[in-house]
Amino acid sequence: MAFLEVSHIEKNFENTKVLKDVGFSLEEGNALAIIGSSGSGKTTLLRCLNFLETPDRGKIVVKGETLYDSQEESVVKENELRKKRLHFGMVFQAFHLFPQYTALENVMLAEQMLAKERPDYKQNKAAILNEIREHGQQLLIQMGLKDRMGHYPHQLSGGQQQRVAIARALALKPDILCFDEPTSALDPELTGEVLKVIRGLAEQKTTMIIVTHEMAFARDVADQIIFMDDGMIVESGDPRQVIENPREERTRQFLTRYFEG
Amino acid sequence: MFLTVTRELLGGLWTTFQIFILTLLFSWPLGLLLAFGTMSKWKPLKGLLQIFIWIIRGTPLMLQLIIIFYGPGMWLGYNIWSGNEAGRITATVVAFSINYACYFSVIFRGGIESVPVGQREAGQVLGMTRSQIFFHVTLLQMVKRIVPPMSNEIITLVKDTSLARIIAAYELTYAGYSFMKSAGITWPLFYTGVFYLLFVGILTLLFNYFEKKLDYFR
Question: What is the mean pLDDT of chain B?
Answer without folding.
Answer: 93
